[in-house]
Design brief:
Layout (H helix, E strand, L loop, with lengths): L1 E9 L3 H12 L4 E4 L8 H4 L20 H6 L9 H14 L6 E2 L4 E7 L4 E6 L4 E9 L21 E3 L15 E5 L3 H13 L2 E6 L5 E3 L7 H9 L1 H9 L21 H12 L15 H18 L3 H7 L12 E3 L2 H4 L5 E5 L5 E5 L2 E4 L2 E4 L2 E4 L8 H4 L2 E3 L6 H4 L18 E3 L12 H21 L2 E6 L1 H16 L29 H13 L5 E5 H9 L1
Parallel strand pairs: 1-2, 1-6, 2-3, 4-17, 6-18, 7-16, 8-9, 8-16, 9-12, 10-11
Antiparallel strand pairs: 4-5, 5-6, 13-14, 14-15, 19-20
Bound molecules: 3-acetylpyridine adenine dinucleotide (N01).
3-acetylpyridine adenine dinucleotide binds next to helix 5.
Length: 541
């Protein structure tokens, strides 16, 4: 079975769905491959109890279509996973996308043929699809990671990762359960596991700063207002830093005297959600300012957790709040007041090995029936390097990025012509509203392919010098923030052996959008464009 299309799109999450739709609208033939049995990407795989978005539902949706925005109605401030998945399914049907998606089919590899300037894409069904262009929509946080704990394969119980949760659910009733990891996934899961399990042991290496989500039902008025003003709000959103129409950030905390400082923090805490960080303007830029907000959160932990030793264990002290991705929760700290829930601080009592009956730390054996590895992902690059991309001279993407991902604008990488990435490394990606990031990338790529078609260009490739300059700008932008002062997945620090680098562009969505548009308006400055005639001449020569 061989196919021939203009564009292969990898993945049918929200990025892939929009790419497929927008490319098709411009008359391109598209084949989309999806490993899952249906659409939804992240929200297809992350079916763990408590999974819920931490961006408000009225923002966490497509904005490109008036119909989609007005016909769909969210029910809660933060949508739960089943509702987001239902939205993805509904969009796929509403836009009639399924007929161009091949499900249960993984892209194993893709090889660039320099003579014809096309990609040959190999899929798990044994087929090869030839396409002029490949657009990856494989997810920023999708390549699951489980650290290589000694003895892990000997464990006789059940094991799970939140990002590959069984569709039929898991029965934890009465079981002894271990969770390793307290990032966004672990923090969401833990209260639900504690409800069901006989006993829950949380293995925590770095305590998280988490803010109450304060989820609630949306009221009819706010839904009506959002729908009525959709077009204006969508346009405003495109020109924001974060892809969200935020209220104005507050004053500088360092310039705000008491008691006003605490009053503002209390108000923001009551409002809940990760916008807590924007209560003051200097918290993400200045360590002294940050410490004032961090101290406020530490006091909140001490006020909720009854046992002082447990409270101390759960309290982050050695990195700035927001330096790692801020977590939002429902009843996370209160869960540790339950008699069936303990925390083990791995910094004082590290995991030595996994044994058939449980987790052995230095202090002894914790016998469990189930281990949940909430240990995160090989973010931004993993989903791409796990596909065997072969560019010029057969060089693999994995090798090309062995010393760090190098891209031009986070959209393309030298040595791999006609390959575009949606929300990949060195773009704003996970630092902004994913829908805003996806729409900006898809619209830029579709405009690019349309321009190339009109001018007879068959090959586009990023110049190494453009990448070098972009890489410097990405590093410089992160150096201005506290992300550069924290070990986190934002810099690839969570994966052993991964080159540490700024994985996201921190300059904000609107600045990034203007830079990308400027490059396009300037004839795709920084790329080499080759037209069909030149390609034929090269072949003859
Ligand atoms: O993964 P993480 P996640 N031994 O990498 C620990 C998004 N998301 O799946 O901090 C022991 O954040 C690790 O410890 P440490 C969101 O962007 C959003 O939770 O490295 N522990 C950490 O505690 C998020 O940031 C939503 O010391 C080990 C945890 O595992 C991103 O996805 C929901 C370890 C991993 O935390 C990833 O979140 C879920 C080891 N060897 C996810 N290795 C919402 O929208 C790792 N850990 C709400």
């Amino acid at each position: 079975m061989n196919r021939d299309v203009d564009v292969v799109v990898i993945g049918a999450g929200f990025a892939g769905l929009y790419a497929l739709h927008a490319l098709r609208e411009q008359g391109f033939t598209v084949a989309t491959f999806e490993a899952g049995t249906s659409v939804g990407g992240t929200w297809f795989w992350n079916r763990y109890p408590g999974a819920r978005c931490d961006v408000e539902s009225l923002d966490y949706q497509y904005s490109f279509s008036e119909e989609l925005a007005t016909e769909w109605t969210w029910t809660e401030r933060y949508a739960p996973q089943p509702e987001i998945l239902a939205y993805a399914e509904w969009v796929a049907d509403r836009l009639d996308l399924r007929r161009h998606i091949t499900f249960e089919t993984r892209v194993d590899g893709a090889r660039f043929d320099e003579e014809s300037s096309t990609w040959r894409v190999s899929t798990s069904d044994g087929a090869v699809t030839t396409a002029r262009f490949v657009v990856t929509a494989a997810g920023s946080i999708s390549a699951t990671s489980v650290p290589p704990f000694a003895g892990a394969e000997s464990f006789r119980g059940e094991t799970y990762h939140p990002g590959r949760w069984p569709a039929e659910g898991v029965d934890f009733t009465g079981k002894r359960v271990a969770v390793i990891g307290v990032g966004s996934s672990g923090v969401q899961l833990i209260p639900h596991l504690a409800d069901a399990a006989g006993h829950l042991t949380v293995f925590q290496r770095t305590p998280a700063y988490t803010v109450p989500a304060r989820n609630r039902a949306l009221c009819a008025d706010e839904i009506t207002l959002a729908k009525k003003n959709h077009a204006v709000l969508a346009e405003q959103k495109r020109r924001t830093f974060s892809g969200i129409n935020l209220p104005m950030t507050g004053d500088a905390i360092l310039a705000t005297p008491e008691p006003k400082r605490t009053t503002v923090l209390e108000q923001a805490w009551k409002l809940g959600g990760n916008l807590f960080l924007t209560a003051f303007s200097d918290v993400q830029l200045d360590l002294d300012a940050n410490e004032l907000m961090a101290a406020f959160v530490r006091d909140k932990i001490a006020a909720v957790v009854d046992d002082p030793a447990t409270a101390r264990a759960l309290t982050p002290t050695d990195y700035p709040i927001g330096g790692k991705r801020i977590v939002t929760d429902t009843d996370f700290y209160a869960t540790f007041n339950r008699p069936n829930t303990d925390v083990v601080s791995l910094r004082e009592d590290p995991i030595v090995e996994i044994v058939p009956t449980g987790v052995r730390t230095e202090s002894g054996l914790h016998e469990v029936d189930v281990i949940v590895y909430a240990t995160g992902y090989d973010n931004l690059t993993g989903a791409l390097t796990r596909i065997d991309f072969r560019g010029r001279d057969g060089v693999s993407l994995k090798d090309s990025w062995a010393d760090g991902a190098h891209t031009y604008l986070g959209l393309a990488t030298s040595g791999f012509p006609n390959l575009f990435t949606i929300t990949g490394p060195q773009s704003p990606s996970v630092l902004v509203n994913m829908f805003a990031a996806i729409e900006q990338h898809v619209e830029w790529i579709v405009r690019c392919l349309t321009d190339l078609r009109e001018s007879g260009v068959v090959e586009i490739e990023a110049l190494p010098e453009s990448e070098r300059q972009w890489g410097e700008q990405v590093e410089a932008a992160m150096a201005m923030t506290l992300y550069s002062k924290t070990n986190s997945w934002y810099r690839g620090a969570n994966i052993a052996g991964k080159t540490q680098q700024a994985l996201m562009y921190c300059g904000g969505l609107v600045d990034y959008r203007d830079r990308c548009d400027d490059v396009a308006a300037d004839g795709y400055r920084g790329f080499v464009l080759t037209d069909a005639a030149a390609l034929t001449e090269e072949e003859v020569a």
